Amino acid sequence: MRYPKFLPEKGSIGLPAPSFGASIEPYRTMGKHAIRRWEDVGYRIKTGPNTFAGEGVGISNTPEKCAEEFMDLYASDADVLISVGGGELMCEILPYLDFEKLKKLDPKWFLGYSDNTNIAYLLATLCDTAAVYGPCASSFGMEPWHSSIQDAFDVLTGKKQTVSGYGLWEKDKIKDEEHPLLPYNLTEPLQIKTYIGMEQVEREVNIQGRLLGGCMDCLVTFLGTKFDKTVEFVEKYKDDGILWMLESCDLNVFSIRRAMWQMEQAGWFQHVKGFLIGRPLNGEPMMNLDAYDAVLAAAGKLNVPVIMDIDLGHIPPQMPLVIGSMAKVTVNGNDITVAMEYC
């Protein structure tokens, strides 16, 4: 696994928009404020032609132009890349990305989540290059920064390799077009559920493995395509074992269950050591199926720890996790710590 150099003091931050650009409010104001904040402490910002664009369908511009911008910024003197935002159709830029060239270039940290799974996951599985699954650039515009935002920046600068849960999460947003810089509205207590197989347990659980995953909405689109080299990846790192980190956006509970079945049947869960599952954005029960059984229908059969409702993904805050790193996870009740090693 290749690990990039950390962002140096007063280094350069590239802001590609391979998915949505910061073209509408509140994201435009958030993005502009994040840039000012970084520049005020000496960082140099490299925007691309799509950073604030909204010309595409589900992405900032045409797939060709989005891929061109990403390749140009990855090959530039920017020290790290932080995706401007999430979106819907980043998968359509993949045929225009040159993964062979990305393998040969010096590795560079890429940070983003949601639709950015399309790049972060493939950097790991196709290029053997670690990436950070965490907040997009606009989130760095909030005032003040939540500790999860500081954690993400500390991962990029090399100041932090261990992250923990944050205690409270956001059920109802208060940020809007008129109040774009408000921080998270954290009202709900973190309530982790830990399973071994199908049985919920209360004792401390420790697991270790190589982190892999992202947004399930995106992951299942790889199945059956030339971009799916997951089985080869998990076989390469079988001695480490795989610790799957998964969350979902648009998928309802039946879609989550189908996605887990697809990944299992495709052989992705070979050599699995455990699962870290984020709170689903659309996880309301349907027809006697809830979000826990949706995951456990596949994961529960594997007799490994399944840690659910952690701070990961679309319901903030989220722990920044390095896809491709070796992680030691400790869970005790509602306390979770993820210590990542770059080896």
Describe what this molecule looks like in 3D:
This protein is α/β, with parallel strands linked by helices and 343 residues long. Helices cover 26% and strands 24% of the residues. The protein has nine helices and 17 strands. It has helices spanning 27-40, 63-74, 99-104, 117-127, 147-157, 216-222, 230-236, 253-265, 291-299, and strands at residues 12-15, 44-47, 80-82, 109-112, 131-133, 162-164, 168-170, 186-189, 193-196, 199-201, 205-215, 242-247, 272-278, 305-310, 321-323, 326-332, 335-341. It has a nine-stranded mixed sheet. α1 links the parallel β1 and β2 (44-47). The mean pLDDT is 97.
Broad shape? globular
User: Which percent bin holds the helix content?
Assistant: 25-40%
**End-to-end C-alpha gap:** 7 Å
What is the average of the pLDDT values? Answer: 97
Q: Largest sheet, described in full?
A: 9 strands, mixed
Question: How many β-strand runs?
Answer: 17
Count the DSSP helices: 9
The share of residues in extended strands comes to 15-25%
Counting helices, strands and paired strands, the structural category is alpha/beta
**What value does the Rg take, in angstroms?**
19 Å
| Major sheet strand order | 6-17-16-11-12-13-14-9-10
Can you tell me the residue ranges where pLDDT is under 50 for at least 5 consecutive residues? none
- The oligomeric status of these chains comes to single chain
